Amino acid sequence: MEKFTTLTSAAAPLAIINIDTDMIIPKDYLKTIKRTGLGKGLFAEQRYLDDGSDNPDFVLNQPAYRNAQILVAGDNFGCGSSREHAPWALLDFGIRCVISTSFADIFYNNCFKNGVLPIVVTQEQLDELMDDARRGANATLTVDLESQTIRGPDGGEIRFDIDADRKHRLLNGIDDIGETLGNVEAIDRYETRQADDRPWI
After folding, report:
1. Count of other CB atoms within 10 angstroms of residue 18
2. CA distance linking residue 21 with residue 15, whole number of Å
3. Where are the beta strands (DSSP E) in 25-145?
4. What CA–CA distance (Å, rounded) separates 100 from 14?
5. Residue 17 belongs to a domain with what CATH number?
6. pTM above threshold 0.70
7. pLDDT tens, residue by residue, 24-66
8. Whole domain around residue 54: which residue ranges?
9. Which residues touch 128 (CB under 8 Å, ≥6 apart)?
10. In a domain, 122, yes or no
11. What is the pLDDT of residues 96-125, one digit of tens each?
């Protein structure tokens, strides 16, 4: 998993509440278990017109936000079904950080398992960040995971909370499997001891 340390990027404003996982990645794109290639399906029903062409009104199709790596979104982001394809699609598109006032629990947990940083802020802070994001490519946000801060284009700073263990994993690019493999010597010792103590197993 790619490490997350500091990210500076234009932030795409998506001021919609209750964005569910079907909106993030429609069911038509769930035929694969690969984590790559799903970026094309991210917000597909909003990004594309009926003829398959880009919808110019959708924020991620606008020139200022085509390369945005930060998403500033409305309350209850990632609700709905528990599809892990949702953070896969965000990551494959290039989104490394989503900022909202709240997230659905399963989506929130899946983000950390896939290298996407979900940040919870207050409504007042979100309004401020949304205003910053609406300035387009001329105004960028900097997310510093080590200091747990978001710096705006005018120098303002917002602190955010994050679980220490999840922070450690993101900073070091460790997923659940990686964390287990970090204890492989202890696991080998345990297995050797079990084989000696209980050879019939």
Report:
1. 13
2. 16
3. 70-73, 97-100, 117-120, 140-144
4. 10
5. 3.20.19.10
6. yes
7. 999 988 888 788 899 999 999 999 999 999 999 999 999 999 9
8. 8-139
9. 152, 156, 158
10. yes
11. 999 999 999 999 999 999 999 999 999 999
Sheet with 117-120, strands from edge to edge, namely 117-120, 97-100, 70-73, 6-14, 140-144, 149-151, 157-159
Lookup result for tokens 């035929």: 31
Which H helix or E strand runs over 8?
A: strand 6-14
What's the CA gap between 56 and 109, in Å, rounded? 32
Residue identified by tokens 């070091």 is 172
Residues in the chain, overall count: 201
Q: Is residue 160 part of a domain?
A: no
In the three-class reduction of DSSP (H, G, I as helix; E, B as strand; rest coil), residue 171 is classed as helix
Say which residue the tokens 């204890």 belong to.
183
Q: pLDDT tier at 178 (50, 70, 90 boundaries)?
A: low
Please give the helix or strand (H or E) that residue 112 lies within, else none.
Answer: helix 105-113
